[in-house]
């Protein structure tokens, strides 16, 4: 698995609602949020319904916070390359994104018990390439 970290700017005059993402590198892409888990540890979980970005506003998808998670990555994701994914919005519009892959060691989150990831924790997380540094605009 790997994650995408970026800033999504709404350049329009009405709110936009990001529902989902898709990518040729992953059969399952989820919108994730990070919440306080049991024992005070931060835990990530799927964010049902996605994210709303206000008119003229932005939303930061970052390590240790909201992010896009690519599960079951089907091809090697190597630092220094790029990966494409598509953001899908409630109004039916889409936004193609190309992101640079960088090595990332993780923000030390766990998964909320019962999450749809198939595991409740990520002990010994090793450095994983992640997509970061992208700014995408829509509106």
TrEMBL record:
Composition bias of kind Low complexity appears in 116-139
Q: Which residue stretches belong to region Disordered?
A: 112-139
Q: Which domain of life is it from?
A: Bacteria
Pfam families found in the cross-reference section: PCuAC
Name the UniProt record assigns to this protein: Copper chaperone PCu(A)C
Upper lineage: Bacteria, Bacillati, Actinomycetota, Actinomycetes, Micrococcales
Q: Where are the transmembrane segments?
A: none
């Amino acid at each position: 698995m790997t994650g995408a970290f970026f800033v999504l700017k709404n350049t329009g005059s009405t709110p936009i609602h990001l529902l989902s993402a898709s990518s040729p590198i992953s059969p399952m892409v989820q919108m994730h949020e990070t919440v306080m888990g049991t024992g005070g540890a931060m835990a990530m979980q799927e964010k049902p319904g996605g994210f709303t970005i206000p008119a003229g506003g932005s939303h930061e998808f970052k390590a240790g916070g909201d992010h896009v998670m690519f599960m079951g990555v089907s091809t090697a994701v190597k630092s220094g390359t790029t990966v494409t994914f598509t953001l899908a919005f409630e109004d039916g519009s889409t936004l193609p994104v190309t992101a640079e892959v960088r090595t990332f060691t993780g923000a030390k989150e766990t998964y909320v018990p019962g999450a749809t990831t198939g595991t409740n924790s990520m002990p010994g997380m090793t450095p994983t390439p992640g997509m970061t540094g992208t700014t995408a605009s829509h509106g």
